[in-house]
From TrEMBL:
Record protein name field: Phosphate ABC transporter ATP-binding protein
Keyword ATP-binding set for record: yes
Organism encoding this protein: Virgibacillus phasianinus
Keywords: ATP-binding, Nucleotide-binding, Transport
Span of the signal peptide: none
Amino acid sequence: MSVVQEAKRVPIIGMMNTDFNPADKIIYSIQNFNLWYGEKQALKELQFDIPANQVTAIIGPSGCGKSTFIKTLNRMVELVPSVNMAGSILYNEQNIFDPKYKVEELRTNVGMVFQKPNPFPKSVYENVAYGPKIHGIKKKKVLDEIVEKSLKGATLWEEVKDRLTENAFGLSGGQQQRLCIARCLAIEPEVILMDEPTSALDPISTLKVEELVQNLKKEFSIVIVTHNMQQAARISDRTAFFLNGEVVEYSNTDKLFSNPTDKRTEDYITGRFG
Ligand SMILES: Nc1ncnc2c1ncn2[C@@H]1O[C@H](COP(=O)(O)OP(=O)(O)OP(=O)(O)O)[C@@H](O)[C@H]1O
């Protein structure tokens, strides 16, 4: 992994952000960002801002770079040995690729929920208490409070409050995914990244997670990758349409779906390709 460019705090003007509300706090600023897997360039000159306390959806056809992009936001992408990057990603105005930047700090503030629910082979309680324990919280009373608050935050408490000692694998797929969200909430992140969090779920569980995402944005900033355009239209405030590693269009979700600026966006959202 190498990062060629130093962070430059340049004001972002240009097409990508013109419909921002001046009051929006910017949580991530993506600046001239490029990424390669070996020789293959997967992300090209990305340049856009992500606002706090909103839901930002990343859409686009298979292989366009959605997962790669979301995994750069917590620097998970670096786990792939062939990765090279250039440009900057500022999180709260600090370049996360600066050699002095502490990746542990980023991972504490940025939680992630994956496509398939991936609870630990532990009890429901231990799944949620795990992160706080790693952060040094030992008192049972405090952990109990965190577990309850997190499960309530993930709208799972009523369903599992009498099953806290049972193995998490005994929960349904939808419940397991909400447990993974609760596990994420327990470390009190600022941002939650979601990589196709409902693609393995049935329609009712999907609806529950979608409602949950809507509630969570009051407290958290959410970036969600989805294959499902209806889902992006239902739950996100802003949408970025990726194609071949580039951001073709990024705007208010209503605008992107009702009146896209770029012909390629129109073709994609009307199902002409993808
Ligand atoms: N570990 C890797 N090594 C090499 N190439 C990779 C790796 N991961 C992804 N790629 C390539 O990078 C490009 C973007 O992949 P990515 O998984 O980010 O796309 P995506 O939009 O999330 O796709 P999908 O919707 O199918 O999940 C693709 O061409 C993919 O083959």
